């Protein structure tokens, strides 16, 4: 393809402002089948099932418009995947900024726009949903200028639903977004934008070619991992898969190269010609490292092998989570897993439970601590270790210093919610770095310990701001802190899945909160159950679950026989989801619920 005829762009939008509807329209108008039409076809034609795996993940679509090739690149929308987003944006020269004509600019949009501006994108504002009676396009146009600072005088007024303004959007992409630049004669340099596992094609790799070209039969070298692979397919999604002889500079498309695992195809890696390699790799490669760890254990010990198989399968498609076997006194055999963030953890956990039908116990998420131990006999310096699991915490007397990871967070929030957000950050040991106003919104920068963020910070932020606050963060290294391991004892037995590392200053309130929540989460038994939080041997909080009187059960389960049977069945079902500690049954939900801070 002639490089001057290529346009690469992404779509920025707040949830519900119409991104998917607009993408479908653009595909339809330029002659391709939309995702919905394709899945309808899939139902008619079982044979196309193999394409389904691709279309689910292939969010990059090649469109043709008036002699130009337009590549629409989709981007994931969550902070956990910030690095993937940054690579997708780096593969584009422009973006459509879709704003709902009735809702106006929302906080989340801001964070995304700024990222796009950082990548020097040409941004085309699209004011969508102008068909709504409540649409106020002129007000929204002014808002885009005041709040974001973009010239919106030539914003396109559109309705993705009614099909208004679609041609103008396509024309604007051709006219305003610059074509990519690249040298067709230089050695191949292509950025690996995304990769995923397809059961029929193996690992599929999405690339953006910078210089040179990539073709079938070529030996390509991955400059970061150092491996070499033979390219066996080159193509693009329209959105149906279409094989092409090659991809030249500026083009976006996919290749397959008989790669077995996505772990070998890292986002941000540079592909080059194995025989005529480029001198240096593209800038910006980052090895993504899991930052949040937790244990996953089967509720039923007999499911351990099934869990191992399921985790291995998921890992085929997601190189960013890690796992290794773990044993726990109370929970038996399971896995210690690492994730990019809490949402990532929840996605994996959810998939294991839903797709693989596993009942799981998730232990308290933990960040990675670094610690230096005191010198042992014969050692010149104290040993340095990394701690992923509170259960492995060494004897406090042997610890010289503990460091915890910190992040720098940028929060965008409408003025009226600022007060409670500042309080939240302050309560989480945050250090305020900056506070500025753009339009009616505040932009606050805080340094925060990651350990205060992983549990429920994002949920709290959203609920305090009714969904309007957005949050973006980056890691800024480890810092020393006064950290201690807090154990939870139920009926005088430590429950290792609930032990956590906390800052000494917040230990007592955390401990009290945990005990209070556990008191509500654990059902009453026939005996009294003490619940305690302790640091070392010292109890810092305590609650007691009162005993259930025997005759109460008898009364409530008495009477109608079928009702009684149903209750018993339900109980049996419930039992499967309980875990016994000493003689206390703890429901599965209690493990995660207890960690949510009030
Ligand atoms: P997520 O997929 O949740 O991120 O949302 P999205 O931004 O992709 O929005 P989506 O395209 O799913 O549209 C959200 C809702 O707005 C849907 O109910 C659409 O039918 C509706 N919608 C999209 N565009 C228009 C429009 O131009 N006019 C009207 N009236 N409704 C629209």
Automatic annotation (TrEMBL):
Catalytic activity: GTP + H2O = GDP + phosphate + H(+)
Subcellular location field: Cell membrane
EC numbers, comma separated: 3.6.5.n1
Domain of life the protein comes from: Bacteria
GO molecular function, one term: guanosine tetraphosphate binding
Residues in Tr-type G domain copies: 4-181
Binding of GTP, residues: 16-21, 128-131
Keyword terms: Cell membrane, Elongation factor, GTP-binding, Hydrolase, Membrane, Nucleotide-binding, Protein biosynthesis
Keyword Cell membrane: yes
Topology in membrane: Peripheral membrane protein
The protein's enzyme class: hydrolase
Pfam families, sorted: EFG_C (PF00679), GTP_EFTU (PF00009), GTP_EFTU_D2 (PF03144), LepA_C (PF06421)
Purpose of the protein: Required for accurate and efficient protein synthesis under certain stress conditions. May act as a fidelity factor of the translation reaction, by catalyzing a one-codon backward translocation of tRNAs on improperly translocated ribosomes. Back-translocation proceeds from a post-translocation (POST) complex to a pre-translocation (PRE) complex, thus giving elongation factor G a second chance to translocate the tRNAs correctly. Binds to ribosomes in a GTP-dependent manner.
Name of this chain's protein: Elongation factor 4
Species name: Sphingomonas pokkalii
């Amino acid at each position: 393809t002639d490089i001057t005829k290529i346009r690469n762009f992404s779509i920025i939008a707040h949830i519900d402002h119409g991104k998917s509807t607009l993408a479908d329209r653009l595909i339809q108008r330029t002659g391709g089948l939309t995702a919905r039409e394709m899945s309808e076809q899939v139902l008619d034609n079982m044979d196309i099932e193999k394409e389904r795996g691709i279309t689910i993940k292939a969010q990059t679509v090649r469109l043709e418009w008036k002699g130009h090739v337009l590549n629409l690149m989709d981007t994931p929308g969550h902070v956990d995947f910030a690095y993937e987003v940054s690579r997708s944006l780096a593969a584009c020269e422009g973006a459509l900024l879709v704003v709902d004509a009735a809702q106006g600019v929302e906080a989340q949009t801001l964070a995304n726009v700024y990222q796009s501006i950082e990548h020097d994108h040409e941004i085309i504002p699209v004011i969508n949903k102008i068909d709504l009676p409540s649409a106020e396009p002129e007000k929204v146009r002014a808002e885009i200028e005041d709040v974001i600072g973009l010239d919106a005088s030539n914003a396109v007024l559109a309705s993705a639903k009614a099909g208004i303004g679609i041609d103008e959007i396509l024309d604007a992409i051709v006219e305003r977004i610059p074509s990519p630049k690249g040298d067709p004669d230089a050695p191949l340099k292509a950025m690996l934008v995304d990769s995923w596992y397809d059961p029929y094609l193996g690992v599929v790799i999405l690339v953006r070619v910078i210089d040179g070209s990539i073709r079938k039969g070529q030996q390509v070298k991955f400059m970061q991992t150092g491996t070499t692979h033979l390219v066996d397919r080159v193509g693009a999604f329209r959105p149906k898969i279409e094989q092409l002889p090659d991809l030249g500079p500026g083009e976006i498309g996919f290749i397959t190269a008989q790669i077995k695992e996505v772990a070998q195809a890292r986002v941000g890696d540079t592909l080059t010609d194995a025989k005529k390699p480029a001198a240096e790799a593209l800038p910006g490669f980052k090895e993504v490292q899991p930052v949040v760890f937790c244990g996953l254990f089967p509720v039923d010990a007999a499911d351990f092998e099934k869990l191992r198989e399921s985790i291995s399968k998921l890992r085929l498609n997601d190189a960013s989570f890690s796992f290794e076997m773990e044993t726990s006194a109370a929970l038996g055999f399971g896995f210690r897993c690492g994730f990019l963030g809490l949402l990532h953890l929840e996605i994996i956990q959810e998939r294991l439970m839903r797709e693989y039908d596993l009942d799981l116990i998730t232990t308290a998420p933990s960040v990675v601590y670094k610690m230096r131990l005191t010198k042992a006999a014969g050692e010149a310096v104290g040993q340095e270790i990394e701690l992923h699991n509170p259960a492995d915490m060494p004897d406090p007397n042997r610890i010289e210093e503990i460091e915890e990871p910190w992040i720098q967070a940028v929060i965008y929030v409408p003025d009226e919610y600022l007060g409670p957000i500042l309080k939240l950050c302050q309560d989480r040991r945050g250090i305020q770095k900056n506070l500025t106003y753009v339009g009616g919104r505040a932009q606050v920068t805080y340094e925060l310990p990651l350990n205060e963020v992983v549990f429920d910070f994002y949920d709290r932020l959203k609920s305090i701001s009714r969904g309007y606050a957005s949050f973006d963060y980056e890691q800024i290294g480890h810092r020393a802190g006064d950290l201690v391991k807090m154990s939870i004892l139920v009926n005088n037995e430590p429950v290792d899945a609930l032990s956590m590392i906390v800052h000494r200053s917040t230990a007592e309130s955390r401990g009290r909160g945990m005990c209070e929540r556990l008191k509500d989460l654990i059902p009453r038994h026939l005996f009294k159950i003490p619940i305690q939080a302790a640091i070392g041997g010292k109890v810092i909080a305590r609650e007691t679950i009162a005993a259930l009187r025997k005759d109460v059960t008898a009364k409530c389960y008495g009477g109608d026989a079928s009702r009684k049977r149903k209750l018993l069945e339900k109980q049996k079902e419930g039992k499967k989801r309980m875990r016994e500690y000493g003689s206390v049954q703890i429901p599965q939900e209690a493990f995660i619920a207890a960690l949510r801070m009030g």
